[in-house]
Amino acid sequence: MAADSALLLSLVEEYVSGLQDSKAKDTARGVKDGQFTVLQLVEALGLSLTSSQTHTRARGVQLLSEVLHECYGGLTEREVEVLIAFYENRLKDHHVIIPPVLQGLRALAKCTVLPPGSAVSMLRSLFQDVHVQSLMLVERACVYNMLINLMEIREAELKGLGADFVFGFVQSMDGERDPRNLLLAFQVAKNIVHRGYDLGKFTEELFEVTSCYFPIDFTPPPNDPHGITKEELIQMLRDVLTGTPLFAEFLLPLIIEKLDSDVQSAKLDSLQTLTACVSQYEHKDLAEFLEGLWASLRREVFQTTSEKIESAGLAALTALTSCLSRSVLNSDSEDSLCTFLDLVLEDCKHHLSEPDLKLVWPSAKLLQAACSGSSRASHLVTAAVMPSLVEQYNNRTQCAHRRTLLEVVQRFIQAVKASPSTENEESVFLSFRPSLCSMVFSALSENNASLQITATSVLASLAQQTGLLLDSDIELAIDHLTRLLLTEEDDRVSLAVVECVRALAALHPAAFITKLIPRLKNEMFSEPMKQDDNNEASEQQSHHAVRQRCLSALAAMSTRSSVVQESTPVLLEVLSSAHTGSVDFSVEEVVLACRSLQRIAEQVQDTEETGRCFHEIIIPRLLSLALQAALQDASPDRCSPLLEEVVLSAIVPVISTSCSRLQPTLAAQTASRAVSLFLDGDVSFLPDNSFPSHIQLLKVEVPQMDRLLSQLEEVSCTCSHPLSYTSAAKCFAGLVNKRAQGDSLDGLIQNTMKRVCSELDSASSSVRTQAFTFMIWLFSLLDDADLGPMAADGFSLLMSDSVDVLDRGCHADIRIMYRQRFFSENSAKLVQGFNNAPQGRLIISDKPNSVEATVCIISETLSVSPAEKKPNYLKALSNIVNKLPKQVQVTELPALLSLLLEALSCPDQGVQLSTLSCLQPVLIDPPSALILQLEALVSRLLALTSSPAMVLPFRARVLRALARPLDDKKRLVRSEAVRARAEWRSRGRNYDAELQRCRPEAALVEFGDYHPLKPIMVTDTKTRRGTRKGSTSSSSSSSSSAPADPLSSMLDGTDPLSMFAAASVGEAPAMSHSASAGDLGRKKREKEEEAVGPDFEPWSSKRGEILARFTTTEKLSILIEFLFAEGKAPSPGSAVSEKVRTRLEELDDLEEGSQRELLNLSQQDYANRIEELNQSLKEAWASDQKVKALKIVIQCSKLLSDTSVIQFYPSKFVLITDILDTFGRLVYDRIWTMCSDPRPLPDSFTVDDVNDTAKETCLNWFFKIASIRELLPRLYVEAAILKCNRFLNKSGIQETLPRLTAMIRGIGDPLVAAYTRAYLCRVGMEVAPHLKDSLNRNFFDLLGTFRQISGESVQNQLVLQRVEVPEYLTLYSPAINWILQCIAYRAPEACSHILHRAFILI
Predict the structure, then answer these.
(1) Which has the closest alpha carbon to 770: 721, 707, 708?
(2) Which of 100, 298, 1136, 1285 could bridge 1292 with an S-S bond, Cβ 3.0-4.6 Å?
């Protein structure tokens, strides 16, 4: 016992002293284990709890609270009472002690033995002694949670506080801003409102403290760990505001006010809140605000710009009407519903008489929404509106007006149907029945297709209303529908008629059985009339279209079992007649009959009569017809359509769908019959049994199920007919899928796999395709030359549901999330297979005695080239990803995005289509990883637009050919021609590119072709791309041989006035210098860029690929110095000496001062920061803060020495070198501008053409850069302005490149050095592509650094970042790629051949 006391004292002392916070858990564990009690803990804390030191008391209370938080369940009622008294007293203590006190009270509030009255005592002390909003977030959350706990377990006691509890809560919540605490506070307020707490005189205060957040305007931060959404806050606040009618007088004016807002989300929230609150209110709560509410709702519907707001407004109107309809009328009360509907009718009714104006539809929608509120409202509105609509229809003659009026009537019928009504109540349209029927039948008799379509919809709606259509009306409707089916050629009308037939037949089956089915049967079995040769083809086509419509109508009407028993024999007779040839049915018509049977099986009601019809008639009849067709003697004159593969494929889903809808007993009998038929030739159940007495379809001698599986396996692996072996494989798969797990199933699969693998491993086997079809899931086949593409397509089959076998409708055993499991198990194998596809390798020999490393290119000879294998892996991967749920796609996309983007560059169109279908759903709501790679994605999509498969080149030809059908005599032909032309005309065009292609290419003029005007056209001709060194076909030679055009200088911006304006600007920012100098600088840059021909792939084309390939999910950081400090821009009137002194002081502080490190940046955030720095550079330059601009470039260059996230380094290099390129251009343009005074600098200028001011400025820039202390930023910044050496001396670039190349050897990190060399080669190619020595030296220096990879420094770095050496080596590929490309450009043929191979294989 003494030992326990000593232990407790030591734990308390260590915790209170602040040495170890973990001692609180040890103490709580001791209390739980019974080692010591809470009383002993309080005694041990005695001195700490009564200490005069605030910190000591706080630590003591905190220890006690943390122990109570873990052990509150074991306290007695007396202990709880004492502890509550202690904590209530501590609430008056120092503010530092309040947080642990609240934590302790929250723990005690969870106790089940909480003494009576203690909840009230705690809350009184809390509200009196604590200002909740002055607490930190966690302590405020503690208060709200304590209130929620007490409201759950001590509700009666809290209600006893009356309005004081509400007042205390209002004071505690007032001013809360954190969304996490708002959810808790709204929960407390919701409990107060919904559980009947007495609000007293604080009703308005509670409303004000909660409604100040209405409407919610909250955007959660990205990757919010708390998961709080705007929708949660909106719903919780709405529950508070709409929870009691006491808030009506405050809430309704607030809603009217918010509906005047221009913010769409505020309007939508207000309308949804109005809909929710009126369901809780009574009519007397709304009476005062009806006019204001109606004015707001009318405005939102009449002037809406959003469908969501319009729908919300109509829903609010329906709810408002429903609320007013609940009022109980007496002689003294005013009818609020009639008053409100009078307002609605007054503003909307007169618009219905103007069907050609745009307000007819908003008015109709408002009236229909009011109709939907209640049965009483629908009677009042229809009684006022329908006579006017009927009169308008009868008076109007234009079909467009009549169609509009019919559509309005239909909306009213649907609205009345949706309104709540009593069970046997008569339809409100009963008094208008004759007028409505007359309107519909007259519209069906018109020749206007749109009017006919609308009439069929109205007819279907009328049929849904009891008593609106009599038997005579149904018969007349059937006559009209039959006429339209047989005569109308417009597909839209036919589709509308078929849908109307479906609706009417479900309600009146007897009429359709006696009238429509016999008529359709006669039409289908009739032969087309004999015509002359010219009209025979047209008549055949017309008759075929009629049969198609009849078959569709038969399928649509067959939803009741009585109709099915009459319609299915007709369809079966079509198949039988086609087989026997008694009626000439085409293969397409036979397929349509089968699909009609399938549609009937899918939609018919599940009854015993229907099941027996399929079991005893349809399935046996189909099997009999198929067997008869297979056994008939082959005739050279005629072959049964049932032998066609497309027909057999259409019969299969009919049988499978029919079996899936059978009752278990009938399904078992059907399965037994089918197996007996195929195994034993039992044809006794087939109708028209004229088969031989014994048919042995399959020769087997093993037991029943095993016999069936064995024979199916044999057919799958040996049959030469594609449909047969594919169907056998499907059947085998379906049976195995449903077989019970166990040794029998395992043995079956092992034996099957052994056989299939043996066939696949034999390249000479004649049944490899059959075997692969049987086992589609083998990965190794992606490398096979013959079966690789089929294997890639097979992944789509494995990830999809097979509608005829492996589907839930066929009762297949489909495991949950099997697609995700298949992806997780196999995607890595596909990626590995893609990466391991054979390709050339670069082998570096580093012998100790060699001065230079030797490069050897070794190409492996393969049976299948990588170009043939890699697309298979890409296609398989895209097929797998395409079938994943979107949520899984978004999470897996970052890791696979680089491969999917590479798949878009694959020449195989199948790979392209599969990848595009994979990316399409993700592009709707793109994740951040895809946004980061947007440039690479867009570049690949643009490349696809020039694919040979694109139809754009044929546009003009197709439009010309479609001009003739526009004048065809048939309306349907004209309509299709217009639609086709519209599709072709909607294709976009790149007019700039077309203009460039149409411009004549300038050429030099020969002496014999001389004409005085020609030199004007050709003197400004640019040097042709690809012109080699020493060529004389330059613009300067042409220009000198022809007289100058006196007007050309006025057009190119070099007129004297522009030059004078440029001189007056002086030291203005670069963005504001004259147009003359800007144009000259742009022309000069274009001239110099032509030093590299079109056969050289520019850096810009590689930029997006690098960003797409090298990504990371690690957090990044940026160390920034001085980048956000405002530079001191010198005043215009300051002396030159002051300017110089200021700039020298800034340069002295260039690398000294405060630093700021931005941590935990995502890849997207990092890219955004770099872009911000690029913009800051441009802004600083434009505001004449050149030193600040230099600081930005130096600090960005320093970032390239950071390899803490090494996988991202290539992308970082791309982003930061963009800033360096910007800086180089700005410096060069500034100096070029200074050289243009007093006359423009010639195109091929020399040092002698540069004035002294420009030389001094250029030299000053190089001096500034030379003063940079660190090697890496000094190298990068000097390389960025390498081009400026042209202003200083003739051989400046030639001397600088070797010096910078040698300086790179001082960089210790081999990866950083490799990319520095790549950048130097890049700027060297831009300014002096003919200087090959520095390029070669950089390349061999790069080879020499590879020995560092095995060194301790690099290896430690790789271990620390968990990067394997092969993965690390891939980081060098962009740099080596670029250097080799630069070396190979216009190199001698032998060297170029070798280096191009190296470039491709790296």
Answers:
(1) 721
(2) 1285
Contact between 341 and 372 (Cβ < 8 Å): no
3-class DSSP assignment, residue 549: helix
Which of 360, 359, 356, 256 lies closest to 313 in space, CA to CA?
Answer: 256
d(CA 1324, CA 1280): 10
Pairing label, strands 1155-1161, 1116-1121: antiparallel
Cα dihedral across residues 1312, 1313, 1316, 1318: positive or negative:
negative
Q: How would residue 205 be classed by pLDDT, with cut points 50, 70 and 90?
A: very high
| 962 token code pair | 């479609």
Separation CA 232–CA 730 (nearest Å):
48
Is the pLDDT at 1078 greater than 50? The verdict is no
Q: What are phi and psi of 1118, to 5 degrees?
A: -130, 125
Report how far residue 646's alpha carbon sits from residue 648's, in angstroms, rounded to the nearest whole number.
6
Pair of tokens at residue 499: 């849908």
What is the Cα–Cα distance from 413 to 844, expressed in whole angstroms?
Answer: 83
Tokens of 363: 């008015």
In tens, the pLDDT along 959-1016 reads 777 777 877 777 777 778 887 877 665 445 555 555 555 554 444 433 344 343 333 3
Angle separating helix axes 307-325 and 290-302, nearest 10 degrees: 150
* CA pair distance 926, 934, nearest whole angstrom: 10
> Residue 1389 burial by CB count (10 A; 0-12/13-18/19+): exposed, middle or buried?
exposed
DSSP category for residue 780? G
Other CB atoms within 10 A of residue 1311 CB: 22
How many residues can be counted in the chain?
A: 1402
pLDDT given for residue 1160 in this prediction: 64
Burial class (CB in 10 A: 0-12, 13-18, 19+), 1114: middle
Cβ within 8 Å of residue 1060, ≥6 positions away: none
Q: How far is CA 92 from CA 80, 126, 186, 1199, in A?
A: 19, 10, 28, 54
The CA-based dihedral angle spanning residues 277, 282, 288, 289, taken in that order and rounded to the nearest 10 degrees: 30
Q: Are 241 and 274 in contact (CB under 8 A)?
A: no
d(CA 29, CA 36): 10
Element (H, E) at 43: helix 38-44
Cα gap 710→702, rounded to integer Å: 9
390 Cα distance to chain centroid? 48
Asked if residue 188 has pLDDT above 90, the reply is yes
Q: What is the DSSP string of 572-610?
A: HHHHHHHHHTSS---HHHHHHHHHHHHHHHHHS---HHH
pLDDT above 50: residue 863:
no
Confidence of residue 856 (pLDDT cuts 50, 70, 90): very low
Nearest alpha carbon to residue 182 among 221, 224, 133, 123: 133
Select from 209, 235, 232 the least CA-distant residue to 133.
209
Q: What is the DSSP string of 512-542?
A: IIIIIHHHHHHHHHSPPPP--HHHHHHHHHH
Beta-carbon contacts of residue 454 (< 8 Å; ≥ 6 apart): 403, 406, 407, 410, 443
* DSSP assigned state of 1360: H
- What one-character-per-residue DSSP string does 994-1035 give? HHHHHSPPP-PPPGGG--TTHHHHHTTPPPPTTPPTT----H
Give the containing element (helix H, strand E) for 1157.
strand 1155-1161
Secondary structure of residue 1047 in the 3-state scheme: coil
Task: Give pTM, 2 decimals.
Answer: 0.55
Q: Is residue 1271 classed exposed, middle or buried when 0-12, 13-18 and 19+ CB atoms within 10 A define those classes? A: middle
